[in-house]
Amino acid sequence: MISNALLASTGITLALLFLLLGHLRFLIPYRSLLLHQYGTVILLCVAMLFLNLTAALFTLGRRFFLKDTGRKLAHFDRELNAGRTPMPPHLHREELL
User: Fold this and answer.
1) Are 4 and 60 within 8 A, CB to CB?
2) What is the rounded CA–CA span in Å between residue 6 and residue 53?
3) Under a CB-based contact definition with an 8 Å cutoff, are residues 10 and 49 in contact?
4) Are 61 and 3 in contact (CB under 8 A)?
5) Residue 53 neighbours by CB under 8 Å, 6+ apart
6) Do 27 and 34 touch, CB atoms closer than 8 A?
7) Of the candidates 53, 65, 62, which has an alpha carbon nearest to the alpha carbon of residue 8?
8) CA-to-CA distance for 51 and 48, rounded, in angstroms?
């Protein structure tokens, strides 16, 4: 889940940055001045945007893609303990203990 959220937020952040770079072409003559005076603030804002996007996408992913996971795993565990699910010989619980 974390890797999916990081990948999606990286793509969204890059897309937003390229979109902004296209719209802010009139600031090209002032590039060195802006980067010198406001470079750390711009970098901090981009980093906060990236972290917030990652958190939001992680939350959405857990909410929609991991729905009822606990119930499904409990059902599988009950079947496994009842012995109805065929398991390979190297994964039996008795051999692990």
Assistant:
1) no
2) 9
3) no
4) no
5) 8, 9, 12, 13
6) yes
7) 53
8) 5
Q: Residue with structure tokens 């996408």?
A: 57
Q: How many residues does the chain have?
A: 97
Distance between CA atoms of residues 27 and 17, nearest Å: 14
Measured distance CA(76)–CA(78) in Å, rounded: 5
H or E segment and range at residue 84:
none
Residue 29 sits at the vertex; the CA angle it makes with 27 and 30, to the nearest 5 degrees, is 65
What string of pLDDT tens digits covers the 97 residues of the chain? 889 999 999 999 999 999 999 999 999 999 999 999 999 999 999 999 999 999 999 999 888 877 666 666 777 677 777 766 566 666 555 554 5
Cβ neighbours for 95, distance < 8 A, ≥ 6 positions apart: 89
d(CA 52, CA 81): 41
Tokens 């109805």 correspond to 84
